[in-house]
Amino acid sequence: MNILLLTPGINKEFNDNYYAYKYIAEKNHRILAISNIENILKGAGVEPSPEVEFDGNISIHRVFKTLKEQRSCYPAIKKYNVIKKIVKKFDPDIIFCENSINMPVAVRIKKDFHIPIVLRLEFLFDWDSPYGIIGHQRFIKNKITGDALGKIIGFLCWRWLLRHSDEIISHYPGDRNKAIGSSRHPRQAIYIPWPGKELVFGEKIERHQGRALFIGSFDAHKNFHEFKKVLPELFSRTPVKEFYFVGTGYYSYIVDELRKTFSNRIKYVKTMPRDECLRLIKSSYFCYSPAVRGGWGFIGDAWAMKTPLVTTCNHYEFNDDIDSIVANDESIVERINRLYNDTSYYEKIAIGGYKRFQDNHRAEKVGESYLDVCSKALKG
After folding, report:
1. How do 52-55 and 167-170 pair as beta strands?
2. pLDDT given at position 73
3. Measured between alpha carbons, how far is residue 42 from residues 12, 65, 317, 369, 380 in Å?
4. Which of 193, 223, 198, 216 is nearest to 307 (CA)?
5. Most buried residue, 140, 169, 233, 379, by most Cβ within 10 Å?
6. Is the pTM of this model over 0.85?
7. Domain count of the chain?
């Protein structure tokens, strides 16, 4: 199978999904990836990559200079002739489109080459939470119209995506078996867990008992105001001595405020390659995320590194006391202290998360699921 991959970023040093595609390529399928030069690191930083790169059966052409250029409709279409020439030489059987931003180009390729589109999304459209599919919550939502504008834009975007895609994958477990399409043409979304890759270190990594951390973008859905409430409690009432933030985004000002208050107890790194992030996770005592959606790469990496995950919002079907700790403002101090005081409990959460990663999130397992969906789309 020749798979045309349209992706916002692909680099084995930085991206979770790369290893799922690597698995597919190692099964004797060919992948042509169209992307941009600036690839997103863990924590939403940017690292330039070569314009053309080859890795076995994966060939990468970074036609766009920036992610902004790729996601903007006019510049993307303006470069279509360049993309079409590369695609024609590759002779794809199917389009695997990551993210709705690549759909304008995907639709043109579909019409020119008469091949199906598999669209991979983090979330399907949801009337109650329209920003999962369109983003830009901070700019669209306002005091006057509330979520009304987001719902209208999201619905129109969703209708267009449904019309032009042949199969749709969602990485959100709440979308499992969700009916999509119309009464005349009913369809079902396909849920596939977010992929990750376990990194085995050559040396033993010692855990810093006083260290906890968060990695990810500093966006609205990461619920950063929660850190202002929780971290003072952790520093004063638990053995936590330092908290690491890795990332960038609008809410970095909250990290700055915390640094002013707690000085060197707050460690802040804007960007970090994947292997260094995994090493930091492995050396930390636990990971903490107050996010209300997303952040799956960080979650999966915590599980893969056998580092207990503490959350204050169950947005990912967490199993409390099994694969993670689902706390609230009142219980979080007590729950974290138990991690420190009960070794068997710590091991239980760590192993439970690792088992969930092995059962659901391994890149090889996710890659096999991607292949199944592509085969289904080709059969029509």
Report:
1. unpaired
2. 72
3. 12, 19, 23, 24, 37
4. 198
5. 169
6. yes
7. 2
Q: Which residues of the chain have pLDDT under 50?
A: 41-44
Quick one: residue 239, left, alpha or beta (phi over 0 = left, psi -120 to 50 = alpha)?
A: alpha
Domain for residue 178, yes or no?
Answer: yes
User: Tokens 């270190």, residue?
Assistant: 201
Euclidean distance between CA atoms 353 and 321, whole angstroms: 10
Radius of gyration of the chain (CA): 21
> Pairing relation of β-strands 242-246 and 186-188?
unpaired
Structure tokens at 152: 């209208």
Tell whether 310 is covered by a domain.
Answer: yes
| 321: its two tokens | 């006391």
Cα separation, 15 vs 301, in Å, equals: 12
Pairing of β 38-40 and β 46-48: antiparallel
- Residues 172 and 224 grouped into a single domain: no
Query: Is the domain of 27 the same as that of 156?
Result: yes
Does residue 202 fall inside a structural domain?
A: no
pLDDT given for residue 221 in this prediction: 87
Does 95 share its domain with 243? Answer: no
Which residues span the domain enclosing 294? 208-361
Within this chain, do residues 90 and 147 fall inside the same structural domain, yes or no?
A: yes
Which one-letter amino acid corresponds to residue 297?
Answer: G
Do 261 and 184 lie in one domain? The reply is: no
What residues contact 223, with CB distance under 8 A and at least 6 apart? 290, 291, 292, 312, 313
Task: Give me the pLDDT at residue 42, please.
Answer: 47
**Are 355 and 373 contained in the same domain?**
no
Is 90 within the bounds of a domain? yes
pLDDT of residue 304: 96
Phi-psi region of 46 (alpha: psi -120 to 50; beta: other; left: phi over 0): beta
Place of tokens 């503490």: 310
- How many whole angstroms from its chain centre is CA 195? 9
φ, ψ dihedrals at 183, nearest 5°: -65, -30
pLDDT in tens, 269-299: 998 888 899 999 999 999 999 999 889 899 9
Phi, psi of 33 (to 5 degrees): -105, 130
122 and 264 part of one domain: no
Domain match, 177 and 54 both: yes
